[in-house]
Amino acid sequence: MKAVRCNSAYALSEDEVCESNKYNFKATVIQNIIYVYSFLDYWLVQKVGDKKFYLYHQNKKFGNKNYHFQQEFSNLDDTFEYIHRHDEYVLKVKWTLPAGLKNAYRKARRRG
């Protein structure tokens, strides 16, 4: 990952971030950098141009706490929506049992 630098030319205001943060994530703004704390993960949003935002995700695999590049966005609303959808996906798909396994557990409980 390239070093993330603050750039006051693209500084964000707290109001601008609050307006886009429709999902009430905890967010800390430092010039052109936003630290976002979603329900499950940590994120970093960097404004690098007038309509250019880089989204970084904290990599928790293998105990590595560094951020890795996730995606580029053209506005802040889409960035926050992506974070929200990512949390929903992880909760729905990764933290639930597959249907076949759920049925097997159900049947095993009835027999026991």
Question: How would you explain this protein's 3D organization?
Answer:
It is a single chain. This protein has a 5-stranded antiparallel β-sheet with strand order 1-2-3-4-5, covered by helices on one side. The chain starts with 13 loop residues before the first helix and ends with a helix. The longest helix has 19 residues, at 76-94. It has helices at residues 14-20, 76-94, 99-111, and strands at 26-30, 33-37, 42-49, 52-58, 67-73. The radius of gyration is 18 Å and the shape is elongated. The model has no long low-confidence stretch (mean pLDDT 85). It has one domain (8-111). It is of the alpha+beta class and 112 residues long. The chain is 35% helix and 29% strand.
Topology:
Layout: H1 14-20, E1 26-30, E2 33-37, E3 42-49, E4 52-58, E5 67-73, H2 76-94, H3 99-111
Antiparallel strand pairs: 1-2, 2-3, 3-4, 4-5
